[in-house]
Design goal:
Strand content: 25-35%
Structural class: alpha+beta
Number of strands: 16
Order of helices and strands: EHEHEEEEEEEEEEEHHEEEH
Radius of gyration: 20 Å
Helix content: 10-25%
Largest sheet: 7 strands, mixed
Shape: globular
Number of helices: 5
């Protein structure tokens, strides 16, 4: 099915473009997890914004089979009997609000505020409109002996807990989706424990011990970013947004310097990663890490 979109002058005003860099990873090539069968329509840089006329734009509509199978976290198809979503608000326990303001609804579909992606539908995302995630950026200083290790910039080197995703093999921040009704602060700690410590396979006693060790640490985070992210799963009608927090350990006698990392859940590997400008990470994660570097005046 081909899905075209033409925004009227009235609808244009509902679109709010933020300072986020123009999305790139969700344009061009094949859609992820489609076995190289679903190709995005090409969208030139100067045609990304809906306000720019693009009469030839015709995006294929695609929703992955595992989403159409209706797992508990997924919306029904738009037009399904009984599915009447409340857009731009808290819809029961499902948060359909965007961190970036009001998004447009046209023909019953929500439309990506950051413009065309070359594909319509939900792709591999569960919800129409914003899909909310939380990303805990857990950092410490790199230390040799009792001394900070400095980069060639003369600034101390930061390390962060980095996981390798099972789905794409890319290295990433150990984040995940906010469950309906869940506090973001709870998501941040839960995702870190599941992906970087493999808490899912811990006994009840082991899980209690690690929670006691980390509870205070995860109370002191600083917000790094809140908004839209350039995720390869984004479509014209469904997109990822995140809240990213930095949790930093500055004391080498603190919990993080003795923490045993163990990959679990959606991660196939985990490590402490030195941070510098050569990082190549999943989605917009490199941009988030750079913001943390600037916060701490660390090496980049």
């Amino acid at each position: 099915m081909i899905f075209a979109k033409n925004i009227s002058l009235g609808a244009k005003s509902l679109y709010k473009y933020s300072s986020v860099t123009m999305h790139i990873k969700c344009r061009g090539g094949f859609y992820p997890r489609s076995n190289n069968k679903v190709r995005r329509a090409e969208v030139p840089n100067d045609k990304v914004e809906w306000s720019v006329p693009f009469p030839d734009y015709a995006a294929r509509k695609y929703t992955a089979a595992h989403i159409l199978a209706a797992p508990a976290y997924a919306d029904p198809e738009i037009g399904s009997p009984g599915f009447v979503p409340c857009w731009n608000t808290l819809d029961g326990k499902i948060n359909r609000r965007s961190h970036e303001g009001t998004y447009s609804i046209d023909d019953g579909f929500p439309w990506n505020m950051h413009g065309r992606t070359g594909i319509a539908g939900r792709g591999a995302l569960g919800c129409w409109g914003p899909n909310h995630a939380a990303d805990p950026i857990v950092t410490r200083w790199k230390i040799a002996g009792n001394e900070f290790v400095h980069g060639n910039s003369g600034k101390p080197i930061l390390q962060f807990v980095c996981i390798q995703r099972r789905d794409s093999g890319e290295w990433a921040i150990p984040g995940g989706m906010v469950d309906p009704g869940e506090r973001v602060s709870a998501t941040l700690q839960r995702e870190f424990q599941e992906e970087a410590l493999n808490s899912i396979e811990m006994t009840h006693e082991q899980k209690q011990q690690i929670e006691q060790k980390l509870n205070n640490f995860f109370q002191g985070g600083e917000e790094v970013f809140r908004g839209y992210v350039d995720d390869p799963r984004n479509t014209d009608n469904a997109w990822m947004e995140t809240v990213a927090y930095n949790f930093h350990e500055s004391n080498q006698d603190g919990a993080l310097y003795s923490l045993h990392l163990h990959a679990g859940d959606d991660a196939q590997a985990v490590k402490w990663q030195d941070i510098d400008s050569r990082l190549n990470l999943y989605a917009s994660h490199r941009d988030l890490i750079q913001k943390v570097v600037e916060m701490h005046n660390a090496h980049w």
